[in-house]
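[stage:ingest] chain + small molecule (zinc ion)
[stage:ingest] validated
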Amino acid sequence: MMGAVQQRRALVLFSGGQDSATCLAWALSRYAEVETIGFDYGQRHRVELDCRQQLRAGMAVLPWQGALGQDHLLQVDVLRQLGASAMTDEVAISMQQDGLPNTFVPGRNLLFFTLAAALAYRRGLTVLVGGMSETDYSGYPDCRDNTLKALQVALSLGVERPLVVETPLMWRSKAETWQLTHALGGDALVELLRRDSHSCYLGVRDRLHDWGYGCGQCPACELRAQGWREWVDTPG
Ligand code: ZN
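[stage:predict] done
[stage:export] tokens:
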């Protein structure tokens, strides 16, 4: 039992990855209406953006408390102009001197939440939902709980409207995220996310593993495969 439906309306930052897809299901289980926002910032691979539509179509036919509303896809080419990272250019994924992987795009989540808040203001939505997690191995500073709590305050003040930032995966491991998926939508939702959510940094979609599509070698695939196995091996 995930709690009664709330009359508030939510906007989910929805990339097409496993985490944001779980967040969409979580939001549909608790808010009256849920819209989605995605960002096209010249990702190396566009498969995540394609996955968004398949996930939305699959989710729309499952029984939820709330209704799935509009999707919004924003062009944010500006991130490319700010400089290279392994997320947008053909460079190898590696660790930087500051201890962060070069997949880190500085300011990305700050920008995304600011744009989401602007859209939420226009659309009359009061909850922003994101799949950020501190348990994520990569340790991006703009995914941390304190960053997002500070952002909630700044955005609410900045538009003079109470906006709530919800991050249901903040303290969940990847295995616990699958567990949440199952609790929210059973085997049907697990299967939808397994097949149609995308994690692989290299954009590989031609190999289906037990944990989903991907190259099986990159850090994102390794994390996803490990989380899946932990979840499958969990008793009960
Ligand atoms: Zn991969």
